[in-house]
Amino acid sequence: MFLQDQLLLMGGIAGLYLYDSALLLFHNEIVLETKRDGYIVSSGQAPEIVGRYLFLPNPCCPHRALMRLSWPDNGVADARGQLKRWMRARLALSAIAPWARMLLGLFFLGLPCALWIGKDVLLLSWLVLTYLTIIAMLTQVYQYRQALNLSPRAVAGIMFDVLLCAPFAMNIVRKISLRQAPPSNLSNVASSMLSAAENAMLAEILRKRIQVSLNLMEPGSEVSDTLHAYLARFEDYKP
Predict the structure, then answer these.
(1) Spatial CA neighbour of 110 closest among 88, 131, 92
(2) How many CB atoms lie within 10 A of CB 43?
(3) Edge-to-edge strands of the sheet including 23-25?
(4) pTM of this prediction?
(5) CA-to-CA distance for 72 and 186, rounded, in angstroms?
(6) Residues 203, 159: contact at Cβ < 8 Å?
(7) pLDDT 10s digits, 97-122
(8) Helix axis angle, 152-164 to 120-143, nearest 10°
């Protein structure tokens, strides 16, 4: 395989991986990307794309779960039950996460090495190992389907998706985590799950976004006062 073909193949895989992981967020949406010692708070990157903001999670960390929240808060029914389900799903996803990291290594380290050496037996071995890894990961998804709050139809859809396009399998933790109901509304998540630095980042995001909304409203209106009061909750937060 010529170098140009190899580069095109790797570029196509990277493009599919990034496309599948990307989210388009509404003006009032926030994404929390989990990490070992907390969360990364993001509202997407400017400029707007058809009225939404592009969000790309860290491409080197497909094992991190994502939580999508919106503001202002509309309340969460059965918050305690949702928190229990979220924590159960997080635990199940932690068992699946190593497979996602392994697939990232197979696609972006193993495949380039096999292509560079150019031996057919290596390429065949890579293909077999990759699909064995995907099948093992899907087996765990099926085993943990109740903990992950997935219906049989949802599991079948995920399986079809990743078997049809193998690079999509790297995003399976993200996809499943986004299917989970958030454990609470944004205010409660900020006060109970985020650090002071993460709350400061969230307040800065809300300040910018809410100011855009306020520019379209009459000062002193009920909606305007509600947004000011909502923002104050985050700006006045003390750990």
Answers:
(1) 131
(2) 22
(3) 23-25, 52-55, 45-49
(4) 0.88
(5) 8
(6) no
(7) 999 999 999 999 999 999 988 888 99
(8) 170
